Amino acid sequence: MKRPCSPAAADKVTTVFHVDMDAFFVSVEELFDPSLKGKPVVVGGRPDQRGVVSAASYEARKFGLHSAMPLRTAYQKCPQAIFVDGHPERYRDYSHRVFGILQEFSPLVEMASVDEAYLDMTGTERLFGAPFEAAHKLHQRVKQATQLNCSIGISASRMVAKVSSDQAKPNGILWVLPGEEARFLAPLEVRRLPGVGKVTERQLHDCGIRKVGDLAKLDERFLEERFGQWGLALAGKSKGLDAGGWYDSEIGAEEDPKSVSHEHTFLEDTTDREIIQATLARLCEMVARRLREHGFRARTVQLKLRYKDFKTITRAETLAHATMVDTEIIDAIRALFLRNWTGKPVRLLGVHTSSFETGEGQLHLLDQGPAERWKKALGAMDALRDRFGEDSVSLASGLGGRFRERTHENPVGLPGKHKR
DNA sequence: TCTGGGGTCCTAGGACCC
DNA sequence: TCTGGGGTCCTAGGACCC
Q1: Dihedral sign, CA of A20, A26, A31, A36?
Q2: Which nucleotide has its C1' atom closest to residue A290's CA?
Q3: A116 noted as active-site residue
Q4: What's residue A358's pLDDT?
Q5: Which helix (H) or strand (E) covers residue A275, if one does?
Q6: Residue A197 approaches strand C within 7 Å at CB
């Protein structure tokens, strides 16, 4: 169902909050280690590791550090920075707490990621006052309950609310009044629009378009000729319209995931078949397990292969029947790998599944005879992983010693378990 | 500088069908 | 004998987001 998002077209103006946690990962780490406060901090890993910056503290940003920057680069620019590993469980925990607080303010809350949320605050004036006052209360409540800062953008549309929370950072509130959207956006760099990344920005710059206002002034036909459908969407965005797509959807509508994947970048590129096979098997097991948690069966499995030179290929296969069984995914992935690997050093492997089915469909595979035992074994393995960690059990064949370093002893002799 | 991991959405071409 | 047209499914790649 579509919500009237265009302020001009809406008979009733909606009030959308976009709540964005400030330097979320860093701030959570500071709660666990207050000595980090006020220092240049990088979350993401050791500076000599392969990887990128997940989050940089505001002090670190002064040195030019930012998320997605390679860790080694960050170290060169700011050797005195403190590099810490990320703790996804901590972030999920705090994300849930924030979600709980937001629900006190509106029943229509949608976490867009671990550190940002949309609220439909339409019609809450009697409870919390005008938008700015409500935002102030929300901000205080989050701070009081979690000690974390957030920034809040307020607007009639999701897209403008998101841009305005970005402009409000850090620790601020910004309300774009209905009808003022275009005027608010006009002086901003085109890059500030959600969906405009490095590539689109460069293309727009090549046309002499730098500000959102430049974009809004253009003839839409020009944008359509040059960028197709995307050009028309850009034209809409520049005027503050959600203009279809995700931003036009109902806030709080839960959607099932459309894909489940895992990938791994090796510490060093490898040609070792045993390492490669064991890694593929482990990735398949992790994926299959998540499918079972969701109750999904996947019809399409896809291998991702990245070489030393960063050349990346994907190869997919659609199965005759959907599956959530480790071995069936492993078999398909292994075949794809053997058919496509050039033999050159591998940097990354990935396993991706999609085209989900949720009904009863092919469940007979798991419900008859020996397969019933498989189902039990898979369930038992999932339970063990819950207790002892992802590496505790494995159906993988050819699991080399190098992969057992951080694994636990198998507490119960499970079928398919390989010992070395 | 040397580039993670989890996702979403879009495009484009080919196969296949009617 | 010169070559339709629409729809759907599948595959590969890429931009983008956090």
Answers
A1: negative
A2: B6
A3: yes
A4: 87
A5: helix A273-294
A6: yes
| A277, two tokens | 């096979």
Distance A50 CA to B3 C1' (A): 8
- Region A386-410: mean pLDDT is 46
Give the CA A141 to C1' B1 distance in Å.
41
Q: Hey, what domains does chain A have and what are their CATH numbers? A: 1-179 (3.30.70.270), 186-247 (1.10.150.20), 259-401 (3.30.1490.100)
Cβ neighbours of residue A300 closer than 8 Å, sequence gap 6 or more? A316, A317, A318, A319, A353, A354, A355
Alpha-helical segments (H) within A218-258: 220-227, 229-238
Q: HSE of A324 in the Cβ direction (CA atoms, 13 Å)?
A: 25
User: Could you tell me which of A279, A291, A398 has the C-alpha nearest to residue A355?
Assistant: A291
pLDDT of residue A192: 97
Q: H or E segment at A383? A: helix A369-388
C-alpha–C-alpha distance, residues A340 and A270, integer Å: 16
Name the percent of chain A lying above pLDDT 70. 83
The encoded tokens of residue A183 equal: 């005027």
Cα A414 off chain centre by: 34
Nucleotide showing the shortest C1' distance to residue A319 CA: C10
Mean pLDDT of chain A: 88
Q: Which residue has the tokens 């959308």?
A: A16
Which of the nucleotides in strand B have any atom less than 7 Å away from a protein CB atom?
Answer: 1-12
Q: Is A20 within 8 Å of A151 (Cβ atoms)?
A: yes
Q: Which nucleotide does the CA of A303 lie closest to, via C1'? A: C12
Q: Order the strands of the A312-323 sheet from edge to edge.
A: A259-270, A346-357, A297-307, A312-323
Cα(A236)–Cα(A222) distance, rounded to whole angstroms? 13
